[in-house]
């Protein structure tokens, strides 16, 4: 267990360095004059002239060479100083923390909701089979064939525009969370309900489960004692695989619903060429991704203490 | 390698073929092009002159959708081809050549995988906004990993097997061993990866178009069309439905093709 955590930690360091360096060089390679773009997003398109651009350039030290800028960035990173946003001037770390809260809220709500949808449906279709199984298979296939933003769009059209039940976009009240979380949950549950189904079928058909029934346990006892945990291990492991869907889904959903999280921030930062913010957001996503993967590893370890799959 | 398709795969292939035929020959059946605006004919419902109606600038939807589909299929094809070639060669080399190459490639893979694919593509798309080729590079950069892992695992298993050992002892070259032993084992696995990879490439491009950092207007692209048509949803729902349905169909076709082999 300790070896695993140590390995993940090393991975984390290597990954943040790699990701940071990559974004840094990619951003330096952007075409066009940075000072003009930043001045434009600060003062508005019409107010930009040579003088304003020069002022921005002098203020932010944009004329220094790429190497010295990289060195400076690297030392800053070591002291967890991600710099100030080029557009708003506020510290990036502060902005990232602010956005992170919203993203985590959305991601957790989505994952939770997806579990609430996928597990009962997967179990029910495994128990019952027949038409329920076929209907779920069709819906899952259909949902998988459309990108997550299309699910979101359809949800907006149905719940917000046609039935006027929920707000279209924005945030603030709990009602604003419903549609983004539901969108994320549906895109996750489309796949995970099939995983639950397959695993449940495997367990229900296994000899140990049959034996549990044979010795006189009621169906619910057999399920709680012998079924649940055996089904849970692969399902939780699959959650880890789905993390990438979560993060990508969060990026798209936040942009669609104007949810003030990291994905939304990243898309905006790319638009405004706000290099420190892009770096910060991408870095945070990389770090978060590794951390969440570690958490899934740990969860699997506790569910299945034999520790077979931890290496 | 003999190809025997399941019914699911056959229906996927048929759907894909239909879409390819539409993308290639569709524009020839109607006059005009994807960019010509006709402001006196905006948002006309499908009729005998415009088979799929016109959009908010009066552009012919039949031709625009075919163009967008062409772009998506081209992206998918290029990405699959590139990442398969790079991935398989890197995988075989990593398993057969020295340890340092294996370690190095593994480190690169770990780094790329640490960042969710879409974020990486977003950053690449930011470098040259609206560039088809940048998206192609970024998507291929993510997708080669899957081919790499599969071919590396298979090659590693085979490289100490009796048949490869005896081939080596008999003095056959690396290329011969690859052709005779590794490739026949790797090839059947590639089909599934390629089918899902194609679907992902199409989804990725549409996603970027949707957040406005992908292909730029006035080019026709499925994701971009969806976001362009959304404001006119209440006036012309069919306009929004067309790119949505087409995108779903092409992704479904790819996914159906990949189904079956995995079971």
Notes on the structure:
The complex is a heterodimer of chains A (311) and B (263). Chain A has helices at residues 2-28, 34-43, 50-60, 66-78, 92-128, 130-145, 148-162, 174-204, 207-214, 219-257, 262-272, 275-303. Chain A has 311 residues and is mostly helical. Chain A folds into two domains: 2-91, no CATH class; 93-307, MetI-like (MetI-like fold). In chain A, α5 packs antiparallel against α10 (219-257) and α5 (92-128) runs parallel beside α12 (275-303). The longest helix of chain A has 39 residues, at 219-257. Chain B is an all-alpha fold and 263 residues long. Helix content of chain B is 72%, strand content 0%. Chain B has nine helices and no strands. In chain B, α2 runs antiparallel to α3 and α2 (61-96) packs antiparallel against α7. Classes of the chains: A mainly alpha (311), B mainly alpha (263). Chains A and B meet through α1, α6, α7, α10 and α11 of A and α3, α4, α7 and α9 of B.
What attributes characterize this protein structure?
heterodimer; A: 311 residues; mainly alpha; MetI-like fold; B: 263 residues; 9 helices
CA-based shape of chain A = elongated
Strand content of chain B: under 5%
Helix segment count of chain A? 12
Q: Helix tally of chain B?
A: 9
CATH architecture of chain B: Orthogonal Bundle
Task: Give the % helix of chain A.
Answer: over 70%
Terminal Cα separation of chain B, in Å?
19 Å
- Strand coverage percent of chain A: under 5%
Number of domains of chain A: 2
Provide the residue-averaged pLDDT of chain A: 78
Shape of chain B: elongated
CATH topology of chain B: MetI-like fold
Largest sheet of chain B: none
Secondary-structure-based class of chain A equals mainly alpha
Rg of Cα set of chain A: 24 Å
CATH homologous superfamily label of the largest domain in chain A: MetI-like
CATH fold description of the largest domain in chain A: MetI-like fold
């Amino acid at each position: 267990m300790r070896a695993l955590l140590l390995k993940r930690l090393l991975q984390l360091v290597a990954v943040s360095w790699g990701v940071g360096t990559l974004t840094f060089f990619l951003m330096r390679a952007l075409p066009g004059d940075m000072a003009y773009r930043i001045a434009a997003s600060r003062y508005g398109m019409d107010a930009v002239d040579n003088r304003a651009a020069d002022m921005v350039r002098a203020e932010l030290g944009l004329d220094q060479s790429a190497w010295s800028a990289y060195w400076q960035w690297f030392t800053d990173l070591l002291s967890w100083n991600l710099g100030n946003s080029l557009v708003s001037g506020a510290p990036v770390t502060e902005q990232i923390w602010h956005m992170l809260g919203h993203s985590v809220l959305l991601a957790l709500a989505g994952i939770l909701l997806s579990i609430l949808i996928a597990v009962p449906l997967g179990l029910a279709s495994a128990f019952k089979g027949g038409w329920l199984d076929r209907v779920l298979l069709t819906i899952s296939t259909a949902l998988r064939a459309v990108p997550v933003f299309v699910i979101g769009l359809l949800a907006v059209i149905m719940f917000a525009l046609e039935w006027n039940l929920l707000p279209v976009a924005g945030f603030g009240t709990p009602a604003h969370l419903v549609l983004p979380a539901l969108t994320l949950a549906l895109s996750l549950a489309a796949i995970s309900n099939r995983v639950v189904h397959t695993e449940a079928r495997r367990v229900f058909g296994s000899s140990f489960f049959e034996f549990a029934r044979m010795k006189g346990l009621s169906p619910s006892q057999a399920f709680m004692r012998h079924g649940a945990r055996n089904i849970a291990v692969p399902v939780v492991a699959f959650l880890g695989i789905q993390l990438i869907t979560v993060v990508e889904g969060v990026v798209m959903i936040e942009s669609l619903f104007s949810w003030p999280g990291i994905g939304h921030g990243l898309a905006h930062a790319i638009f405004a060429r706000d290099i420190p913010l892009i770096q910060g957001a991408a870095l945070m996503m990389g770090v978060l991704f590794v951390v969440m993967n570690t958490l899934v590893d740990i969860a699997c370890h506790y569910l299945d203490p034999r520790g077979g799959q931890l290496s | 390698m003999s190809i025997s398709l399941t019914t699911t795969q056959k229906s996927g292939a048929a759907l894909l073929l239909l879409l390819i035929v539409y993308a290639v020959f569709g524009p020839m059946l109607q006059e005009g092009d994807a960019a010509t605006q006709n402001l006196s004919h905006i948002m006309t419902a499908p009729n005998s002159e415009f088979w799929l109606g016109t959009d908010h600038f009066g552009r012919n939807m039949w031709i625009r959708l075919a163009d967008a589909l062409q772009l998506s299929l081209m992206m998918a094809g290029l990405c699959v081809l590139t990442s398969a070639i790079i991935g398989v060669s890197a995988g075989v080399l990593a398993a057969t050549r020295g340890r340092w190459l294996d370690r190095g490639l593994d480190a690169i893979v770990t780094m790329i995988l640490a960042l969710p694919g879409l974020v990486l593509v977003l950053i690449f798309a930011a470098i040259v906004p609206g560039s088809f080729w940048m998206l192609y590079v970024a998507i291929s950069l993510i997708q080669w990993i899957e081919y790499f892992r599969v071919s590396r695992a298979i090659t590693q298993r085979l490289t100490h097997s009796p048949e490869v050992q005896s081939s080596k002892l008999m003095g056959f070259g690396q290329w011969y061993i690859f052709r005779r032993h590794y490739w026949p084992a790797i090839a059947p696995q590639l089909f599934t990866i390629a089918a899902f990879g194609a679907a992902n490439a199409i989804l990725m491009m549409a996603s970027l178009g949707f957040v406005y950092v992908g292909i730029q207007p006035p080019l026709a692209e499925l994701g971009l069309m969806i976001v362009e048509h959304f404001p006119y949803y209440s006036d012309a729902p069919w306009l929004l439905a067309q790119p949505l349905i087409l995108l779903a169909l092409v992704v479904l076709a790819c996914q159906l093709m990949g189904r079956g082999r995995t079971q």
